[in-house]
Amino acid sequence: MALSFVRDIKPLFRASDRDEMEWAFDLWRQDDVSTAADRILERLSEGSMPCDEPWPEQDVEKFRQWVAEGTPP
Questions:
Q1: What is residue 7's DSSP assignment?
Q2: Which among 8, 52, 55, 71 could disulfide-bond with 3, CB atoms 3.0 to 4.6 Å apart, if both were Cys?
Q3: pTM of the full predicted structure?
Q4: Where are the domains of the chain?
C-alpha cells in the first residue's frame, strides 16, 4: 500500500515540531511538507531535525519512501 501524508507522515510530526518550524513551513500541511521534502529529508537523515532528538531510522525511511512515491496526500 502506498504511503499517505495524512495517515503515515503527518503523525510523525509532533505539535512541538510544528511550532518550531512554523516560521518556514507548516509540518501539518501536505503542500508545505511536499515543497520542502528534500530539505526535510536531508535534515532528518543527518539527525538535525527535529532539534531535540533524531527520528528512529524506520521513521526516516518511511519519510524517504513517501518522497520517493511522489509525496502523495
A1: I
A2: 8
A3: 0.94
A4: 5-68
